[in-house]
Design goal:
four-stranded mixed sheet, 2 domains, alpha+beta
């Protein structure tokens, strides 16, 4: 792990981040690796812009195997509901806007890289809205659940959601296998998601 500090913000690069990039390059998917990283940066830039707008400080930026993660300097529980909701949605919104622009560029220029960048941003934007706790979609669900629940009930809901998320991941893996998908990286990714449900607090 590499840890830097830029003013009051801690920047962390985990081994998994470099391993993921290296794996994609070894699989001759260097274009997708680069565009994927750009799309992740655009996603997090969307969060940063929303946080800056609402004057929410940034405590930590982490580069890890699944992309980039930003940790606010204050707990979400003490910030307004709609402010948290806007910050969570802004990442996917940034990807969707970029995807629309990339699609327009492709139609005007027939540039293949614009089509790839469109697809990558669309996938990352939609992917982050999946209802798993480690993604923005899961955090949005948690935000709604916790906003209308007591502290004790919220803890019970989180434990229940962990079990549901794990079951959904397993069923997804089984469905892909039945459909004939034998992509090893897909199953490794699903295993990572399953493990994250039990060994991380969020994503």
């Amino acid at each position: 792990m590499i840890s830097l500090r830029i003013k009051k913000i801690r920047v962390i690069f985990r081994f998994g981040f470099f391993a993921s990039i290296t794996l994609l390059i070894l699989l001759n998917e260097s274009v997708y690796a680069i565009f994927g990283m750009y799309a992740c940066l655009i996603h997090e830039a969307g969060h940063l812009i929303a946080m800056k707008y609402h004057r929410v400080p940034v405590r930590e930026i982490m580069f890890y195997s699944a992309g980039v993660r930003i940790e606010p300097g204050i707990k979400p529980e003490i910030t307004p509901f709609f402010q948290n909701l806007l910050i969570l949605v802004s990442g996917a919104a940034a990807n969707m806007i970029t995807a629309v622009i990339s699609l327009a560029v492709f139609r005007l220029t027939d540039l293949n890289n614009a089509w790839i960048f469109y697809g990558v941003n669309l996938v990352i934007g939609v992917f982050n809205l999946l209802p798993l706790r480690m993604f923005d979609g899961g955090r949005i669900i948690g935000l709604f659940v916790n906003n209308f629940s007591s502290v004790e009930k919220a803890a019970e809901n989180e434990a229940f959601r962990t079990k549901i998320d794990f079951l959904l991941i397993i069923l997804t893996a089984i469905a892909f296998f039945i459909l004939g998908n034998r992509n090893i990286s897909l199953y490794l990714t699903l295993c990572y998601f399953a493990a994250s449900e039990f060994f991380t607090d969020d994503r």
